[in-house]
Amino acid sequence: MTAEEIRRKRTRILATSTIALLFLGLIYAFSMFAGPLCAAFGLPASGIGLTFNLMMIAFCLGGLAGSALQKRVGLRWELTLAGILFCIGFVGTGLFGAGGLAVVYALYGICGGLGVGIGYNALVATTNVWFPDKVGFSSGILMLGFGVSALILGNLSLQLAGAWGLPTVLVVLGIVTLAITVAASFVVEAAPANIAETLGCQKKERAGAEDAHSEKPWATAIFWIYWVWVIIVNAAGLATIGNAASDAQLAGFDAATAILLASLISVANGLSRIITGSFYDRRGVVATMCLASILATSSVLLIICGVSTTTGVLYAAGALLCGLCYGSCPVVSSAFARQRYGSRDYPFNLSVVNFSLVVASLVNILVLAVAGASGRLPVFITMAVLSVVALADLVPFSRLWKHDTEGR
Questions:
Q1: In this structure, what DSSP letter does residue 284 have?
Q2: What value does the mean pLDDT take over residues 91-101?
Q3: What 8-state DSSP symbol labels residue 110?
Q4: Which 8-state DSSP code applies to residue 216?
Q5: Measuring CA to CA, which residue among 147, 143, 296 is closest to residue 232?
Q6: Which band of pLDDT confidence, cut at 50, 70 and 90, is reported for residue 203?
Q7: Which pLDDT value is given to residue 202?
Q8: pLDDT band at 103 (very low <50, low <70, confident <90, very high)
Q9: Which end of the chain has the lower number of beta carbons within 10 A, N or C?
Q10: Which DSSP string do the residues of 119-168 spell out, in sequence order?
């Protein structure tokens, strides 16, 4: 393929993957669905929040499984399986959600999360390889589709639920997402092996030099230091996004405004992915992580002030900043895995880097169990302390990044 043919084809692949991720991104609409799920199926509000954490864990496990599946069955069947699992999760919840929290955990949380994880890893890992010259840009576009799903499809779903009922809406979402994922499997394909050479961007590959292709992420020090950072930032994001609607009411907003704010957080999450991608391409990984760390610390402090003083404006500002910060993590992770460890084992390496979400979810559950017993304020105070640790973590990371990329 010529450079011009590659550019035309990768544009179609990027657009198709983004649309598919828009539907798979319904995983992030859970805070909007939580209340309606409880009302529709008579579920206790005290236990419904665990669904989101289970979904995040299943999402990461799905990513690991997907990287192995792609080698065995190919991309098309991998994406088809992702759509089937998502469909089972949403359709099953719509039909059997009244069976209790365990049913919702198993179907919406675990089955749906596995489907999203497999599809996400396949689409992101395959599409990003088409953009060795603009890895931050492509990651940002893909993550935008994934991140704004709650705003677009989440709000549309809630409106339709008023007329059709939430169970019917969940069934429709499951079937439509399956159809779109299968359709995407006929468009998205692997990039040519010599794409970087054809596009004339070998310099962009410097941090993923050939000796990096043979390295396993967990065998390098920089991977673990990066994990500390991304786990903390993700944990702060999960603590905010998963409970945004209810926390906003603690800060003084009414229920309708709280749901609107949850949608706006999704907007911030999505916009951040485009901004972060462009920023990453221009300034690099260290500067991007530094910016995200500053946003994380600022957002948690504003949330603490908003909740403790019942000042909705402060909470809203903090929550929106948290959306911006959280949105940067998947972009940085996908670009970091591609740039540091090369393209040969990128699907697997990406899933390993993204497995940090499992640890982040467990950290979030632990903080909720220990500090959450006294209310939401201690949870955010704990996250504020951790965010300072994440900022300090950038010192050893920047040194290792310079050594690993410039010292090769």
A1: -
A2: 93
A3: I
A4: -
A5: 296
A6: very low
A7: 58
A8: very high
A9: C
A10: HHHHHHHHHHTT-TT-HHHHHHHHHHHHHTHIIIIIHHHHHHHHHH-HHH
Tell me the one-letter amino acid at 45.
Answer: A
With H, G, I as helix, E, B as strand and everything else as coil, classify residue 342: coil
Query: Is the CB of residue 248 less than 8 Å from the CB of residue 258?
Result: yes
Lookup: tokens for 102: 């365990």
State which H helix or E strand residue 378 sits in.
Answer: helix 376-406
* Four-residue CA torsion sign, 279, 284, 289, 294: negative
What's the number of CA atoms in the CB half-sphere (13 Å) around residue 289? 29
Residues of the chain with pLDDT > 90, as a percent, come to 43
The mean predicted confidence, pLDDT, of the chain is: 87
Task: State which amino acid sits at residue 153.
Answer: L
Report phi then psi at 2, rounded to 5: -80, 165
Q: Is 190 exposed, middle or buried (0-12, 13-18, 19+ CB in 10 A)?
A: middle
pLDDT level of residue 204 (50, 70, 90 thresholds)? very low
Q: What pTM value is reported for the model?
A: 0.77
Cite the DSSP H helix spans in 25-49: 30-41, 45-48
Q: Quote the distance between the C-alpha of residue 179 and its chain's center.
A: 22
Residue 244 Cα distances to 165, 266, 325, angstroms: 23, 10, 15
Nearby residues of 316 by Cβ (< 8 Å), 6 or more positions away: 248, 251, 253, 261, 264, 306
What does the alpha-carbon distance between residue 395 and residue 385 come to, in Å, rounded to a whole number?
A: 17
In terms of residues, how long is the chain? 408
pLDDT digits (tens, 9 = 90+) for 226-241: 999 999 998 988 888 7
How far is the C-alpha of 334 from the C-alpha of 349, rounded, in Å?
Answer: 9
Amino acid code (one letter) for 231: I
Secondary structure of residue 200 in the 3-state scheme: coil
Nearest partner of 225 among 401, 15, 107, 76, judged by Cα: 401
Q: CB of 226 within 8 A of CB of 397?
A: yes
Q: Are 284 and 296 in contact (CB under 8 A)?
A: no
Q: How far apart are CA 284 and CA 90, in angstroms?
A: 39
